[in-house]
Write a structure and sequence with these properties.
Strands 1-3-2 form a 3-stranded antiparallel sheet, with helices on one face. It has 9 helices and 3 strands. The chain is mostly helical. Helix content is about 40%, strand content about 5%. It folds into 2 domains: about 1-70 and about 75-190, no CATH class; about 200-245, no CATH class.
């Protein structure tokens, strides 16, 4: 079984190219938000784990357990539908994200959900059901996805930690048909950061709020600490606070 963990602020908002890359990434560090990085290995795993790690390790044919290196996996974009002659007019903090995701959508199903600028829980449930059923039809079992991008599944016989590319390739058409990665990225991001506040600033505020950093802590200090791997050296309660911020920087206390 392949467990998948959910996302946090290393995710953030991102252009289409980063969404494509996320499709085949098992681990998405929550703090790297160039834009909306939700971390879904929607073709394998989504995550909220330390930068530089990836998932899937372990295992022999039939089952795979987390964590392994995804280096060498070739990511593929979904083929976008033709751009409509008239685009919907989106408003609000995520207007540009809805516009770009709608424009680059790979299915009419995805566009229908995005067209009103809102992704409801019912719509996210429908997309998840469609994505799950598609994977089941391909022979995956124990498939379960959460709306934060986490989940689990057991691949068909023949898949192992050594053939992640094959698993990614197998799951790719199902993701494209449901638009699941795009939808869960927006849905989760809006829920965690409704005002679309800069993700780094959001993380800094959270670290200060939970008492992990002083009031004088700056975004530049945060980025330096992140790149130096400082947060992964934290122990016990300090690391728990960090992970809470990493998972939900707008609401963690």
């Amino acid at each position: 079984m392949v467990p998948m963990t959910g996302r946090g602020p290393e995710a953030g908002r991102f252009p289409r190219g980063k969404r494509d890359a996320m499709r085949l990434r098992v681990i998405l560090p929550i703090h790297r938000w160039p834009a909306l990085v939700l971390a879904c290995f929607v073709c394998l795993v989504a995550c909220a784990t330390p930068p530089g790690q990836s998932a899937i390790s372990g295992a022999s044919s039939g089952t795979v357990t987390a964590e392994a290196d995804t280096a060498g996996i070739i990511t593929r974009s979904c083929a976008a539908l033709p751009v409509p002659s008239q685009m919907p007019s989106f408003t609000g903090p995520y207007a540009s994200d809805f516009e770009s995701t709608f424009r680059d959508a790979s299915s009419q199903f995805e566009r229908d959900i995005l067209s009103d600028g809102v992704i409801t829980t019912a719509e996210m449930s429908e997309a998840t059901t469609q994505y799950t059923q598609c994977l089941v039809n391909l022979g995956f079992t124990d498939v379960h996805w959460n709306f934060d991008g986490s989940g689990q599944l057991t691949p068909p016989a023949g898949f192992s930690a050594d053939n992640q590319q094959a698993m990614a390739d197998a799951m790719h058409p199902c993701d494209c048909a449901a638009g699941w990665t795009d939808l869960v990225v927006l849905y989760t991001s809006i829920g965690q950061n409704p005002d679309n506040t800069d993700s780094v600033l959001l993380m800094v505020r959270c670290l200060v709020r939970v008492g992990l950093e002083p009031e004088s802590y700056t975004p530049q200090q945060y980025l330096t600490d992140l790149n130096n791997g400082y947060f992964e050296t934290l122990k016990s309660d300090a690391y728990t606070k960090y992970r809470a911020c990493n998972s939900d920087p707008a609401h963690a206390k």
